[in-house]
Specification:
Distance between the termini: 16 Å
Radius of gyration: 21 Å
Low-confidence stretches: 1-5
Structural class: alpha+beta
CATH superfamily of one domain: ATPase, nucleotide binding domain
Strand content: 25-35%
Number of helices: 12
Mean pLDDT: 90
CATH class of one domain: Alpha Beta
Number of strands: 19
Largest sheet: 6 strands, mixed
Shape: flat
CATH architecture of one domain: 2-Layer Sandwich
CATH topology of one domain: Nucleotidyltransferase, domain 5
């Protein structure tokens, strides 16, 4: 079943969240990148928010999956199903003109991964698919002057990848893409609780702990403790433990240190002329992972540069795809394109 519309569409197909922008309407959808399928028929029974509620709670007959991993497609068929349903959901009517789609992708993905993203969106019904590197989309979404000869550094911390790029003259001059981001932070919390308390928790619980008491730096007004419920690995029974912000911060140290090391690596590779621009303009941070309390301050402390968190950091990339659609001819040259007419 294909969807047939005439609107141009921008997509931020993220590991944790998928956002959709429709030209002339703005952001029309923000849903978790999760699909629940019935095993006997291999058909989806829930997508997005409803499917996320099922993670870790399904009977044997149903499985809830996150089809994106580390910013790229892990399950081709499920991503196609997710896109088909989400795109159908945001359409008021159907016409016999398939849309042009601009979708953001991690700058470090391979040619095979590029093809997988393109094919999934084409199979969902697009007539033309254009890919844009996430750092460029984020820079455009924030409103940085990407066409100027001066350099701007963007750090986009998502669910599966952290993209660090220096942008100038409508291109990426220096780029480091690492598959360490929000998911790895959650996993670090899971491993900490397993090791210290013999407590097994799910991804959703780890995410809640990270949001409630997680931080990159200590704060005087931080919430010190929270109750965490899970399964005791020794007794095999439900159990509740109390954890404090200090130990969660310690658990997050390794993934955060790897992100900081990647930022340093990008700065070392930056040409001196652009580096001097960054000293003045600073670094802009985008993406849901950058909302971790104290992360911009940690990056600033470790680099000695001013760091600013973008307004609505989760929406920066999809807003960038929208601005590209609104001024398509102007941004055409930065797109990774391959047109197919059917």
């Amino acid at each position: 079943m294909k969807w047939f519309i005439g609107n141009d569409i921008g997509i931020d197909l993220g590991t944790a969240t998928t956002l959709i922008y429709i030209k002339g309407k703005g952001i029309v959808l923000n849903e978790p990148t999760v699909v629940a399928i019935e095993k006997s028929t291999n058909r989806s029974i829930a997508i997005g928010v409803e499917a996320k509620k099922m993670l870790g709670r399904t009977p044997d007959s149903i499985t809830a999956v996150r089809p994106m991993k580390d910013g790229v497609i892990a399950d081709f068929e499920m991503v196609e199903e997710l896109l088909r349903v989400l795109l159908s959901k945001v359409q008021a009517r159907r016409l016999f003109i398939r849309p042009r789609v601009v979708v953001s992708v991690p700058s470090g993905i391979t040619a095979v991964e590029h093809r997988a993203v393109r094919d999934s969106i084409e199979h969902a019904g697009a007539r033309e698919v254009y890919l844009v590197p996430e750092p460029l989309a984020a820079a455009i979404g924030v409103g940085l002057p990407i066409n100027a000869p001066s350099g701007n550094m963007v750090i986009d911390v998502g669910g599966g990848t952290t993209e660090i790029a220096v942008v100038a003259l409508a291109g990426i001059v220096t780029n480091v893409s690492v598959r360490i981001a929000g998911d790895e932070m959650n996993d670090a919390i899971i491993q900490h609780l397993k090791k210290k308390y013999n407590l097994l928790i799910g991804e959703g619980t780890a995410e809640d702990v990270k949001i409630s008491i997680g931080s990159a730096l200590p704060f005087s007004n931080e919430d010190n403790e929270t109750a965490v419920k899970g399964i005791d690995l020794v007794a095999g029974l439900p159990r509740t433990v109390r954890v404090n912000s200090e130990e969660i911060r310690a658990a997050l140290h390794e993934p955060l240190e790897r992100i900081i090391a990647s930022v340093r690596d990008a700065l070392e590779k930056t040409p001196p002329e652009l580096a001097s621009d960054i000293v003045e303009s600073g670094i802009i941070m985008t993406g849901g992972g950058s909302l971790l309390q104290g992360l911009p301050e940690l990056v600033s402390k470790e680099t000695g540069l001013p760091v600013k968190l973008a307004e609505n950091p989760v929406e920066c990339v999809v807003k960038g795809t929208g601005k590209i659609l609104d001024n398509f001819e102007h941004y055409y040259k930065i797109l990774l394109r391959e047109r197919r007419v059917r």
